[in-house]
Amino acid sequence: GEDVEQSLFLSVREGDSSVINCTYTDSSSTYLYWYKQEPGAGLQLLTYIFSNMDMKQDQRLTVLLNKKDKHLSLRIADTQTGDSAIYFCAEVTGGSYIPTFGRGTSLIVHP
Amino acid sequence: DGGITQSPKYLFRKEGQNVTLSCEQNLNHDAMYWYRQDPGQGLRLIYYSQIVNDFQKGDIAEGYSVSREKKESFPLTVTSAQKNPTAFYLCASSLYRGGEKLFFGSGTQLSVL
Predict the structure, then answer these.
(1) Which residues of B touch A35 (CB under 8 A)?
(2) B103:A45 CB<8 A
(3) How far apart are CA A109 and CA B93, in angstroms?
(4) What residue of A is the nearest CA neighbor of B59?
(5) Tens of pLDDT along B33-52?
(6) What are A51-78's pLDDT values in tens digits?
(7) What confidence tier does B98 reach under pLDDT thresholds 50, 70, 90?
(8) Which contacts (CB < 8 Å, 24+ apart) does range A77-81 have?
(9) Mean pLDDT across chain A
């Protein structure tokens, strides 16, 4: 199975909160990242969390990490149409410095 | 401005032809990477390089080749041995190895004529 799993689609109404979920399998993960990809563009780093943290907040973004369940989530408050994009979860483990990416979650924001 | 530049934005390959995708960074990063992106499949690692004149195969290296003669440049050649080359190719770099954040270029869309 995949090392990092994400659901493929999420649809929300403008102004609502979005929650994008990710699960990973390697308990030695040291860093976990969220990247955003707009159509026809490269990925840009949104935020990241160290494995010894439970939560990180950065303006409208909140990252929650549940190490016991190996579950990572990204909450976007007051979602706007400009937030429509593909969001990738990625992990880096202690054994390798190469990030492993999930398949990405397409976030669709409608009026 | 510092960044990572990929060219061309769009590239077309004829059957039996080798094509080279360019990737240049002026961030003074040690590590560089090539990923392939297919719809719904996420990013798959093709090759990566930690230092000049050294590179390693990723998960899907067959049909591809790279070189790292300069720190700022990491070109990818898609050879005729790659039978299904149509994809979006992304180059990335990171400051060091060891869980560093990746900086991505804007990608090259390769299609077969």
Answers:
(1) 102, 104
(2) yes
(3) 31
(4) A100
(5) 999 999 878 899 999 999 99
(6) 888 999 999 999 999 999 999 999 999 9
(7) low
(8) A77/A17, A78/A15, A78/A17, A79/A12, A79/A13, A79/A14, A79/A15, A79/A16, A79/A17, A79/A18, A79/A107, A79/A109, A80/A14, A80/A109, A81/A14, A81/A109, A81/A111
(9) 92
